[in-house]
Amino acid sequence: MDPNADSIRVFIDDINGYREGDSSGFVTPAPIYEGALTDGEQANADFVDQLEGQALLEDLQSGGYVIYIRHAQTERDFADQVTADVTDFSTQRVVSEFGTKQSLVIGEGFAQSEIPFDTVITSEYGRAIETAAIAFGQYEKNPALNFLPFEEYTDEQIQEMRDNVTPLLTTVPNAGTNTIIVGHDDLFEAGTGIYPDPQGIAYLLKPDGAGDFDIIANLLPEEWAELSPPVQSFLMIPDSVSDRILLFDSFDGSLVNDNFIDGSETGLGIFETPINAIQVNQEIWVSDQVADAIFRFDLSGNYLDIVSDADGDGDTDGLDNIRGIEFIDNLIYVANAGDGNDAPGDGEVVVVFDTAGNNLGSFDTGDPYDIRAYNGELLITDINSNNDGGEDIDRYTIDGINSTFIDTFHESDGETGVDFPQQITLRESTGTVLVGGFSTPGGVYEYDINGNQVGFFGADEGFANRLRAAYELGNGNILWSGGDGMIVTDPSTGVDVDIYTVNNQDFRPSARYIEPLVILPEGDRNLTGAVYVADQTLDTLLLTQDLTGDGDANDPLETSVFFDGTNESGFVDPTANIFTVLQATDGSVFYGDGNTDTVYRLTDANRDGDALDAGEATVWFAADNAEGLPLLTPNGLAIGSDGAIYITEADTVGTPNGDFIYRTEDLNGDGDANDAGEASIWLDLKAVNPNSSPFEITFIDDTAYIIDSVGGDPNVIYRAQDLDGSGMVETDEVSVLVDESVVPVDFGLTTDGESLFTVE
CA-to-CA distance for 620 and 214, rounded, in angstroms? Predict the structure, then answer.
């Protein structure tokens, strides 16, 4: 039987619990030999990489390699080619369970390191086919990679195998990509003199286009992923009995490190009752309720200092009885309940710090226990049980020290509803929030966006009383913390598993709040998959990226400033009114700003994850262009099939010659389209409709689609194409695709690039 790639993938997709990321702990055993090494084995042992690490990765990403992978490990290693039938897998050695995992690791490594390939060639043997199908999901068989049917080869037979394999090793891949060969040991040794060992090893060859090649490096299955180390994602939970911060796996809740930060008397000796550990950019801040302090650590858990301890007395000035903390828009919000230590007002306030640790002031609240950003607002739990309110969750604006009360998100009597509400977390799968109810009736309370209770998990579902926090894991289960420690529960069945409790420890932990920790690999920031978002409230262009693979950009470091007025390129208020953002195929980002009436081009030249450094921002097109074209409001940007940047120019001040689509390109290589001959009118929309007021533009192939609000006329989406190749679209080359009254403001393309949808 010769199963296809899809059927092989289905068979192995969930083998023995393997999941994405497992390559980080995978090890391929070194080969074991009896007696002296053969010449080929010695050449394999003596091989030295010409490139490694980042240099090798970048070269692989540029393409040009023939990557020869010896098939993954089989149950036994013996010469089956003498009796094997290549059309019948049952007569051959096949990939073992370990080899299956090797293949998965190889495929994951290619994906993680973003190594391009277009062709996967295998022999006709099952073990090569299985390796390719599992790793890459595709293959094409070539009998030139088959063994000759002998166990010992004559010189003539070795030459025959060399003649068969050499054309494959010397063929230059298509530009920008690599060719993968999954084959066997003897064929590779015949072609190179190197015996590839162990099974699963890959050799990277660079054909020179003249019938020869250089062998640049070799890699074991797990080393593909190591070229581009993955983002590490954990959950931090303080234990206020042992005075430690513990780390847990964010996917399944398993314990990773029970002593990540040791603040106990036998460690740093600084914790008294740690409540909440949060990530603040590249630091960890820990609130301690009894020590009245916020402690700072680096992401490795090394102690830095105490936030705002000007008098050096070991606490944070102006805080007393602090609980939950939240990091939002480069500000840290701290729930404060006491009036000692010079805390402001009656003590029941939220104190706001900047990332440098400066106390900026406070705003009044109830008796706050935790703070969470949700739906563009602050949610703050209030444990005040007085008749005038309390035992509830309140809504506030997000405005630093000027944050103000909006109304009550959820009000409880503390008897039939939540009592002593503690941490608030977001349940990603439903968009709801989970709140830990500490006192009877204790459990996890779930609320929708309007504050309506839509769920409750109590003792019947495996959740106990004295519960402080609950967090939805990557696998859908709930990790919860409380007076019994940390437990994972399947909310659908109520089956719970002790993770770190009195049942498996020699003491009773007192677990506190649960927060994510994201650690980026060292080196350049990989922006593949990034989404750029213009925020007109913050006057900022944001970089958002799903670093942890959980389908959102809500975790630490996943949303950051890509460009704003703090740039070192000398632009003043360049993001005060961003209308449109475009990511080019070369990785640069274009955006149109309605305040400066300019289109900017941004490039993360030093690959640190932003365009704030000197020289990383330039003007692409502005009103002072050499062609004298007006640029009143750059509403839309798109890349055409010809590689040019098309700009929607809208007349917002009544200028008669506004409302154009410009075609712009950099002809002289100076990084802009402001020079003579670099910009032209591609479409005059006033000629189509004098009331034109265009917004966004996008392309499918060489056809443009343009949103036009058309003043008081019905809003339309135009289809435009330069059919006669004149370089300008005439009115008879424009047609109405959609005629409607609702105002569309943006486009989206389907993944196949063949159809579009609008945002209204």
Answer: 42
How far apart CA 217 and CA 168 sit, in angstroms, is: 18
Q: Is the dihedral of CA 8, 14, 16, 22 positive or negative?
A: positive
Q: What's the CATH number where 31 sits?
A: 3.40.50.1240
Residue 656: inside a domain, yes or no?
yes
Q: End of a domain among 226, 256, 288?
A: 226
Note whether 474 and 559 are same-domain residues: no
Helix H or strand E encompassing 66: strand 66-70
CA 177 – CA 327 distance, rounded (Å): 42
Over 80: is that where the pLDDT of 142 sits?
yes
The string of DSSP codes covering 249-271 is: ETTT--EEEEEEEE-STTTT---
Q: Are residues 101 and 131 in the same domain?
A: yes
For residues 559 and 503, membership in a common domain is answered with no
- How far apart, in whole angstroms, are the C-alpha atoms of residue 665 and residue 658? 20
Mean pLDDT of 589-604: 96
Average pLDDT of the chain is 90
**Domain assignment present for 609:** yes
pLDDT at residue 523, rounded to an integer: 77
**381 vs 232: CA distance, rounded Å:** 30
Q: Give the separation between CA 1 and CA 15, rounded to whole angstroms.
A: 21
pTM over 0.70: yes
Residue 75 and residue 202 in contact, taking contact as beta carbons nearer than 8 Å: no
CA distance 732 to 711: 21
Confidence label for 82 from pLDDT (cuts 50, 70 and 90)? low
Q: Model confidence over 22-56: pLDDT tens digits?
A: 445 678 888 888 889 999 999 999 999 999 988 89
Residue with tokens 């190197």: 194
Clarify whether residues 206 and 280 are in a common domain. Answer: no
393 within some domain: yes
Query: For residue 437, what are its two tokens?
Result: 């109810």
How many separate domains does the chain show?
3
Most confident of 234-243, 406-415, 514-523: 234-243
Q: Which of 393-402, 405-414, 700-709, 711-720 has the highest mean pLDDT?
A: 393-402
Contact 318, 311 (CB under 8 A): no
Together in a domain, 568 and 708: yes
Contact 140, 121 (CB under 8 A): yes
Show the 3-state SS of 320-344: CCEEEEEEECCEEEEEECCCCCCCC
Cα 4 to Cα 13: distance, rounded to the nearest angstrom: 14
In 3D space, the residue among 183, 198, 189, 201 whose CA is nearest the CA of residue 77 turns out to be 198
The answer, yes or no, to whether residue 215 has pLDDT greater than 80, is: yes
Phi, psi of 635, deg, nearest 5 = -80, -30
The residue range of the domain holding 615 is 531-759
Domain assignment present for residue 37? The answer is yes
Cβ neighbours around 43 below 10 Å, total: 17
Sign, Cα dihedral of 404, 407, 409, 413? positive
**Are 485 and 536 in the same domain?**
no
For residues 736 and 685, what is the distance between their CA atoms, to the nearest angstrom? 12
Claim to verify: residue 509 and residue 620 sit in the same structural domain: no
Mean pLDDT of 417-431: 94
**What is the distance between the alpha carbons of residues 349 and 366, in angstroms, rounded to a whole number?**
7
- HSE (side-chain half, CA atoms, 13 Å) at 632: 16
Domain-terminating residue out of 164, 197, 226: 226
**C-alpha span between 681 and 689 (Å, rounded):** 16
- Of 651, 656, 608, the closest CA to residue 632 belongs to 651
User: Which CATH number goes with the domain that contains 408?
Assistant: 2.120.10.30
Nearest CA-CA partner of 375 in 459, 333, 331, 433: 433
Do 703 and 616 lie in a common domain? yes
Pairing of strands 598-602, 617-622: antiparallel
pLDDT at 84: 77
